[in-house]
Amino acid sequence: IFIFKYYFLISFILGCIGSLGLAPYDIFVFTIFSLIITFFLLEKIANLRKSFYIGFSYGLGFYASSLYWIAISFKVANMGGYLLGSFAVLTLCIFLSLLSGLNYYLIKRLSKKDNILFNSILIITIFSIFDWIKGNILWGFPWTPVSAIWSSYQSTLAPFSYIGIWGYSLVTYSLIVGIYLLHKNIKF
């Protein structure tokens, strides 16, 4: 099938589309549905290495599309120009994409066949933990948690004050998995 022949490219494009949920575009639906589609890709792949590459490709597209502006700031601040800025962004995107690839690898490795509840909780837990790790461990990089897709809408800001950015990420991943399960169980 065409989709599985080019799953790296498709995952990369889905990552680029997923970044449109962040500022300045703020189209949260793109982030939600791009992640859901990667879950369907992951479901169809049997190979653990390929599951890592789906996550890595998605992450590379997502982070390159949402963090490109850092390269521009190197030029504006006269700190090495576009070349050094591009190298810094590429290095950062590759590192963050490794974490994304590890998400998908662990989900595929730990999931249980025909156990939808366990697998759903696994996806929510792994994605939420890695969002937290990315934002708090090492140097801390809290710029692109999934909950940031809600930050531009007045009506969706209230949960940030009650459950925080990481709790809101958990809720957002729960919503994404819920939509994934609804779509998976609806027969057309």
Tell me what the structure shows.
The structure is a single chain. With 188 residues, the protein is mainly alpha-helical. 36% of the residues are buried.
Instruction: Summarize the amount of helix as a percent range.
Output: over 70%
Number of distinct beta strands: 0
Using the CA coordinates, give the radius of gyration: 17 Å
Discrete helix count: 8
Q: Note the gap between the termini.
A: 20 Å
Largest sheet: none
Mass-distribution shape: globular
Average pLDDT metric: 91
Low-confidence stretches: none
Q: What proportion strand? A: under 5%
* Class based on secondary structure composition and strand pairing: mainly alpha
Helix-strand pattern, N to C? Answer: HHHHHHHH
Keywords:
mainly alpha, 188 residues
Topology:
Elements: H1 2-5, H2 7-18, H3 28-44, H4 48-67, H5 69-76, H6 81-110, H7 116-136, H8 158-185
Helix pairs in contact: 2-3, 2-4, 3-8, 4-6, 5-6, 6-7, 7-8
Please outline what is shown here.
With 188 residues, the chain is mainly alpha-helical. The chain has helices spanning 2-5, 7-18, 28-44, 48-67, 69-76, 81-110, 116-136, 158-185.
